[in-house]
Specification:
- The complex is a heterodimer of chains A (92) and B (464).
- Chain A is mostly helical.
- Helices cover 36% and strands 0% of the residues of chain A.
- Helix content of chain B is 39%, strand content 12%.
- An eleven-stranded mixed β-sheet of chain B has the order 1-3-2-4-6-5-10-11-9-7-8, with helices on both faces.
- Chain B is globular, with a radius of gyration of 21 Å.
- Classes of the chains: A mainly alpha (92), B alpha/beta (464).
């Protein structure tokens, strides 16, 4: 299976560190080849067409007020006391 | 070396909690230098809590003064929560997990936060970004993972109780490697509120203790429905009639590549079960050979989504660049270790356009087929008994190929995928002090029955 590593890098927002690219690519190909073994299972046809049961969830209930502003910002790398400050989002 | 709840209750007959905790903290400081069990121990907070308990009037909680070690992916308010990752190195939790609140309500003391594989991804605790933990029973060997620090804390006698988290075996396998009792509860029976998410449809917080009774007590304190966790429930099966109990065992054709000593011990245990009056029956586990493949696709996919939040915006070790997207890239590239990156890559790949049906959807089909196979087995048996791990503990640095590490979960992943409860109890120890546990899998809500069976099994197991 050919793996488009550049596409995965773009989607995951993680780069490969210099010097590690080849090792990582080789490991990823080995892992993908290994998990691909589920392709050999028979008897999946009908189930592939079905809506499979999901994790059962309770109805949402309002439990408490959650974190206040100062608590929510307490671990912020940068903030002005009201908002998280980040690098430029839209170029002028 | 290991100490149970009773040890501390005995001490408190004549000594203060402050005194006992002071001594314990000194021991932890000394042992941690050798074994690297704890990431964070806050001496002042522990002693303040001890003083608070000594001054308490009125009824005492069930875990009064009992120190509990907590895996560092479970939130404790105002205490560092790192998940053993550089990306959360300085993160301090603004709230406590529900399980922690329940422990504190019973007057327990959170003694420290234990080491783990980064973001709970691993089977040896070697993937921690800070340091690997050593097995207290054999320090050149791993304690298992990802809850290796918690299991080691109990095995080293530094805490009678510990909390870990189990997604594919991360409480049971370290229990197996350290000679401790370790339970993965039914999915949903213990609140995940305050547990840092790895794979949300499999993650479960589980108790680790030096004996079955203590594990049971810890489970009772932390279990129960929680409105803060929309996946939580209280599944409870009625008590079984153990006079007519059938135990399922594995067909030996699936055991050809496990450690031959473990296979021999398994054969011997089956004979002992039959002599003790249990009905024993081979169960069908044809789909278990694919369980790990499906497990890694599903958990990596869920992890790639759950770990998308670590972008350096609201928390975490941000690596500033001149634009937001590059900030994401730099933060995540520098903040995550190699195994976390591998799993995010695998999950991203499995969920991406063109591959979703072939990998993620098919893995979920396998998961449903596995649940049906289990339900079929439980028509004829009450429990399924397997070794917890296919191997004895391995040496630090021994496993370099990621897939070799994944194989540690061969016996534990199936119950995780199905959501069933499973316990590991101490079973076999060799002359080098290397241990393996025996795993007992029950049906949804079978925790009470699992504890009863475990106590009966303990009387039959003679090696430990």
């Amino acid at each position: 299976m050919d793996v488009d590593i550049d596409r995965i890098i773009e989607l995951s927002r993680i780069r490969l560190e210099s010097g590690k690219e080849h090792v990582f690519e080789r490991q990823m190909k080995q892992i993908i080849a290994w998990v691909e073994e589920i392709d050999t299972i028979s008897g999946t046809g009908e189930l592939l067409e079905m809506e499979l049961p999901c994790t059962p969830l309770q109805e949402d209930r309002f439990v408490d007020n959650g974190l206040g502003t100062s608590e929510a910002l307490s671990n912020a790398p940068e903030s002005d006391g009201h908002f998280f400050i980040v690098s430029e989002v839209i170029k002028k | 070396m290991m100490k149970g709840i009773d040890h501390f209750r005995e001490l408190y007959k004549t000594r203060t909690v402050y005194d006992v905790m002071g001594e314990l903290l000194d021991t932890i400081q000394a042992e941690n230098k050798k074994l690297n069990i704890f990431i964070t121990v806050d001496r002042e907070k522990v002693l303040a809590r001890a003083r608070e308990l000594d001054n308490k009037t009125g009824a005492r909680g069930e875990l009064f003064g009992i120190p509990v070690a907590v895996k560092d992916n479970i939130a404790v308010k105002d205490v560092r929560l790192t998940c053993a990752s550089r990306v959360l190195d300085d993160y301090v939790s603004p709230y406590s997990a529900t399980v922690v609140d329940r422990l504190l309500a019973e007057d327990a003391i959170i003694i420290g936060k234990t080491n783990l594989d980064e973001f709970a991804m691993g089977s040896s605790t070697e993937y921690s970004a800070f340091f690997p933990t050593r097995n207290p029973l054999a320090p050149d060997y791993v304690p298992g993972g990802s809850s290796g620090g918690s299991a080691a804390a109990v095995a080293a006698g530094l805490a009678p109780l510990a909390l870990g988290s189990d997604t594919g075996g991360s409480v049971r396998q370290p229990g197996s490697f350290t000679g401790t009792v370790a339970l993965k509860p039914t999915y949903g029976n213990v609140s995940r509120y305050g547990l840092v998410a790895f794979a949300s449809s499999l993650d479960v917080i589980g108790p680790i203790a030096s004996n079955i009774e203590d594990a049971e007590m810890l489970y009772r304190v932390i279990a129960g429905q929680d409105p803060s966790d929309s996946t939580s429930a209280s599944h409870n099966r009625p008590t079984l009639n153990f006079d007519d109990c059938t135990i399922g065992v594995l067909d030996e054709k699936w055991l050809t590549s496990i450690n031959p000593v473990i296979l021999e011990e398994y054969r011997s245990l089956i004979k002992k079960l039959e002599s003790a009056g249990f009905n024993v029956q081979v169960v069908q586990t044809d789909l278990w050979q694919y369980a790990l493949n499906a497990y890694y696709i599903i958990t990596s996919s869920e992890a790639s989504s759950n770990l998308a939040r670590y972008d350096g915006v609201r928390y975490g070790a941000r690596q500033n660049e001149d634009n937001l997207v590059d900030t994401y890239f730099s933060t995540r590239t520098k903040g995550f270790g190699d195994e976390v990156k591998r799993r995010i890559f695998l999950g991203t790949f499995a969920l991406s356009a063109g591959y979703y049906d072939k990998y993620y959807k098919k893995a979920n089909v396998l998961r449903e087929m596995l649940k049906r196979e289990f339900r079929g087995n439980f028509q004829g048996v009450d429990f399924i008994l397997t070794p917890t791990a296919p191997e004895l503990p391995f040496k630090l640095g021994e496993k370099v190929n990621p897939i070799d590490m994944y194989m540690s979960d061969w016996f534990t992943a199936p119950a995780s995928l199905a959501g069933y409860p499973a316990i590991s109890i101490p079973w076999y120890r060799d002359e080098q002090n290397l241990t393996v546990g025996i795993q007992c899998i029950g049906q949804t809500g079978d925790e009470e029955n699992i504890f009863i069976l475990s106590k009966k099994l303990n009387k039959i197991i003679s090696h430990f």
